């Protein structure tokens, strides 16, 4: 568990240069008591936090790091060192996807700024451009400008995310329609693939359940749709036939497992006339039960039935901080300020 403990977390409503929204920032206070090595180590942790995207779902955007220190010279020294760390981090992060990729990368990037007004914080919050940004030309911005830029960057990235989600939904709907077409033509599929079991496999998936197959059994869906798109390709034919055979075999294995479990529960050996509860009508082979064939020796009258062996699968639950993100502790969660509230600061505990 990594820990991030800013001295304060800032959450404000911003209305600047046609940008309106809620912004956030992490604040570190330096009273000239921390060495530059200590400050560099802090930047390393903030970079890791941003790279993990642990802020998503907890803050409106990637919170920039603001250092309030004692003098402008000390702020400039810190910014020069932080700029080198940011440049090294960017070199390791390749950006793909054209403008969309660049906008998303910009929104996810950590922004660092510093000013020497720790003893006059009001001027740092509401005053003129006093915050130094990394770069050769020592850029200065106001806090409102800095936060508005982060709101705008996140809005651009969200636009691309929304577009990607819409495109993915359209592709999914098309695949579901194709899957319906294939499964509704069970007889034709069985004939073309020379696989009479196709109808039995398809019967296990009524129309209402088919959309879930895209997530539950993508291998089956891919094999069927790829073959349906080109029904003359021998490789696709063989793949579709094999997947259907595998699913049919798995269904019968499940049928046998349920039958044995029912026998154990009732305490009767197979073939004595007591049937387990039937499956829903029309479900084949799962809906077909046989009680006439014994799969093992009969137990002598009066002997105790076998007790089903229970098995426990151990899974460890990963504890996630509800405030700072997966694998991170110490950062308070974002609590939206009341409408039209002045800039506020929230001190972390």
List the helices and strands and how they pair.
Elements: E1 2-3, E2 8-16, E3 19-29, H1 36-51, E4 65-68, H2 72-91, H3 98-108, E5 112-115, H4 121-126, E6 131-132, E7 140-141, H5 143-184, H6 186-193, H7 198-203, H8 210-216, H9 218-229, H10 234-266, E8 328-329, E9 344-346
Parallel strand pairs: 1-8, 3-4, 4-5
Antiparallel strand pairs: 2-3, 2-9, 6-7
Helix pairs in contact: 1-2, 3-5, 5-9, 9-10
H and E order: EEEHEHHEHEEHHHHHHEE
Q: What fraction of the residues are assigned to beta strands by DSSP?
A: 5-15%
Give the low-pLDDT segments.
274-322, 340-349
Provide mean pLDDT, rounded. 83
The end-to-end distance, rounded to whole angstroms, is 17 Å
Strands in their spatial order, largest beta sheet = 5-4-3-2-9
The number of E-state strands comes to: 9
Query: Portion of residues in helices?
Result: 40-55%
Main sheet specs = 5 strands, mixed
Name the shape in a single word: elongated
Radius of gyration: 31 Å
Structural class: alpha/beta
Count every helix, treating DSSP H or I runs of 4 or more residues as helices.
10
